[in-house]
Amino acid sequence: MNNSLLEHHSEEELWAAYKRHRDPLIRESFIKQYAPLVKYVAGKVAANMPASVEFDDLVGFGVFGLIDAIDKFDPDKNVKFKTYAVTRIRGAIFDELRSIDWVPRSVRQKTKEIEEAIIETEAKLGRPATDQEIAITLGLSEEEFAKTMMKISSTSVLSLNDIWYAADETEHMTIGDSIESPTSLNPDSIIERDEIRRVVVQAIQDLPDKEKKVLVLYYYEELTLKEIGKVLEVTESRISQLHTKAILRLRAKLTHYRKGIV
Questions:
Q1: Which pLDDT tens digit goes with each residue over 158-208?
Q2: What is the pLDDT of residues 228-255, one digit of tens each?
Q3: Do residues 169 and 258 touch, judged by C-beta distance below 8 A?
Q4: Which CATH number does the domain 3-100 belong to among 1.20.1600.10, 3.40.50.720, 1.10.1740.10, 2.40.50.140?
């Protein structure tokens, strides 16, 4: 299909044609059409990153996510491509940031310790643990725990993509994977992914109110942490801590599930 023909087809027709033939010209047209979406997502991520993270780098990482979204999008599903692509683009950016491994080892260790404390405390209580209860498990005062959370939230990259894992340690499932058609999976894998999705959705419902609001506003309303701070009338650093804590809590819940506790 040449460029002149591309102009005379609707987007629906182009998606159907691309699904059948994988025409590189159609792929290129989609990349150009949705390039502004990459910059939009990169801008949202950049707003919550340290100054050392370059916007252009985030855009470059996001392009890989856009290409991945184009190749894996199923037009027969009742999902808009823009919605699907945003999760892929954001996921690709965070994956690339983590692969650079710019988070200090001490912060990674503290993050793991807090996650394990959440697992231990919530297993005993059978409910979401308060900051005070997590701090006690860690042997810290509430003030020391708050300072630790502040350090983690200001230096680490945690996102909802971190919590979507299948039972196989080597398999990483992003939110985007939960949207796409699982036709390539065997029945056992499909059942497992549906169960993981159910556990995470329930875990989000069980979060403390403020943490749940932060996740909804950040991932679904696509506000920046600064914008969420204005909505909830607290500082941006406090929102960052709530976001990090929510992700650690969700990751702990899924660890329970994977170990057969849930």
A1: 776 665 543 344 444 444 444 344 444 455 555 556 666 677 777 788 888
A2: 999 999 998 889 889 889 888 888 877 7
A3: no
A4: 1.10.1740.10
- Give the residue extent of every domain in the chain: 3-100, 105-258
Does the structure show a pLDDT above 80 at 135? Answer: yes
